[in-house]
Amino acid sequence: MPTIQKNMTAARTAARALAILGLLLSAMSSVSAGAAEEPRTIQITVTDQGYEPSRIELEVGESVRLAFEQKAQMECARTVESKELGIERIELPPGKTTVVEVTPTKGGEFTFACGMGMLKGTVVVAAP
Prior knowledge:
This protein has one helix at 3-37; strands spanning 40-47, 50-52, 55-59, 64-70, 79-82, 87-91, 97-102, 108-113, 120-126. The protein has 128 residues and is an alpha/beta fold.
């Protein structure tokens, strides 16, 4: 086989290998980027005694889903709100789980509470 043909065959093989490698690396970065963007979910049970857990620790900029599972009999426990966390008053239907996504923008301790303020929980946000 002439040298020019050998060089062209080698060049085509190398180009194909680089194209495949590029596709693999692109696919891997897409998968890891998608996983990093998915917020974690924190299960919170709402009972007549309060929220469990009643204290949640986060970091500034960390997106989380707060999943409130409503098991309380008290009427006021059927809503939750936190102006500090940007949670407008939302309904928590009995026997259902309601998910709220929050992303704290500053450090500190922030309260979430039932509509009457009788049941309270705290989100502690650590500053970087």
